[in-house]
Amino acid sequence: MYAPGDVRVEDRTDPQIREATDAIIRLSATCVCGSDLWPYRGADPIDRPSPMGHEYAGIVEEVGSEVRNVRPGQFVVGSFFASDNTCDICRAGYQSSCIHRVGIGGEGAQAERMRVPLADGTLVATPEVPHADLVPSFLAASDVLGTGWFGAVAAEAGPGKIVAVVGDGAVGLLAVLAAQQLGAERIIAMSRHQDRQKLAMDYGATDIVTERGDEGVARVKDLTNGLGAHSVIEAVGTQESMMQAIRATRPGGHVGYVGVAHDVALPGEELFFSHVHLHGGPAPVRRFLPDLMDRIWNGRIDPGKVFDLELPLDQAAEGYRAMDSRQAIKVLLRP
Ligand SMILES: [Zn+2]
Ligand SMILES: [Zn+2]
């Protein structure tokens, strides 16, 4: 990305093993993330032409001399933060705050090949190379599924709970899927777009709320005897969406916030009296990857349905345009 709205596909030097703990993978598929739209729309600064992309699934080509857990030929998935998976923070399940974490964005996953640091801690392999039909779902596990899942876990979605989801992008839709898999009793999806409402219903939503902001909150309260939901997942990252999530949660309930916060300021006094739990942040996708990949491998979930447009990698700029204009929910790029 050269500047807001300016994405170009260019030849870069091939990635090399730099540390003994690195792996080089050949991407089977990659994609554009909702969070890539922040710089694309000028909301995040771009100082210099930057490689893009942090979601990846592919075949290991080469490993450094200290890598033990993955080997060339395996199909692997990793998260947008590389992590050692051994430090105290990782072992507590917060690999995206690993004391040795490395952001994948700097490597640029929207590419044919990429370097993955801390390969042993970061990459999870499938039992065998999966059929091509499963690749989109594994790619979804790299970020949007893992992020939606963390949102649902942070919001304590589960049996007996009424869950509401703010945001109908890929993360919000997969948070619906996560809530369903975690056994939620009722799932309210907040969406104004018919195609997204349909996918939300496919993934287990029981109610659709089209209103947003305070009207959206009022509709959630109407649906919950005036109390609000037990669990609300926030998957946008704006002031409006965050307040919508907090206000739609009943006292004692939980908000799981996974939309990357942009200029969000929380009112202390309202929070104080809300009795709402808040937990979120960059999802520790690595915590959930083995379980999620097992569910995909066994055909129990189909998160790849969020990819409603597939383009060759050299048309990445078109992919950004389609997501920016909301013509596509999520764009898969084939190297
Ligand atoms: Zn992402
Ligand atoms: Zn760690």
- Give, in order, the helices and strands: EHEEEHEEHEHHEHEHEHEHEHEHEHE
Question: How much is the radius of gyration in Å?
Answer: 19 Å
Average pLDDT for all residues: 97
**Major sheet details:** 7 strands, mixed
Structural class by secondary-structure content = alpha/beta
Termini, distance in Å? 17 Å
Q: Can you count the beta strands?
A: 15
**Secondary structure: helix percent:** 25-40%
Tell me the layout of helices and strands.
Layout: E1 23-31, H1 37-40, E2 56-63, E3 75-78, E4 81-82, H2 88-91, E5 102-103, E6 113-116, H3 119-122, E7 124-125, H4 135-141, H5 144-154, E8 162-166, H6 170-181, E9 186-190, H7 194-202, E10 207-209, H8 213-222, E11 229-234, H9 239-247, E12 249-257, H10 268-274, E13 277-280, H11 285-297, E14 309-312, H12 316-324, E15 331-334
Parallel strand pairs: 8-9, 8-11, 9-10, 11-12, 12-13, 14-15
Antiparallel strand pairs: 1-2, 1-6, 1-15, 2-3, 3-7, 4-5
Bound molecules: zinc ion (2 copies).
Protein described:
- With 335 residues, the chain is an alpha/beta fold.
- It has helices at residues 37-40, 88-91, 119-122, 135-141, 144-154, 170-181, 194-202, 213-222, 239-247, 268-274, 285-297, 316-324, and strands at 23-31, 56-63, 75-78, 81-82, 102-103, 113-116, 124-125, 162-166, 186-190, 207-209, 229-234, 249-257, 277-280, 309-312, 331-334.
- The protein contains twelve helices and 15 strands.
- The two termini are 17 Å apart.
- It binds zinc ion (2 copies).
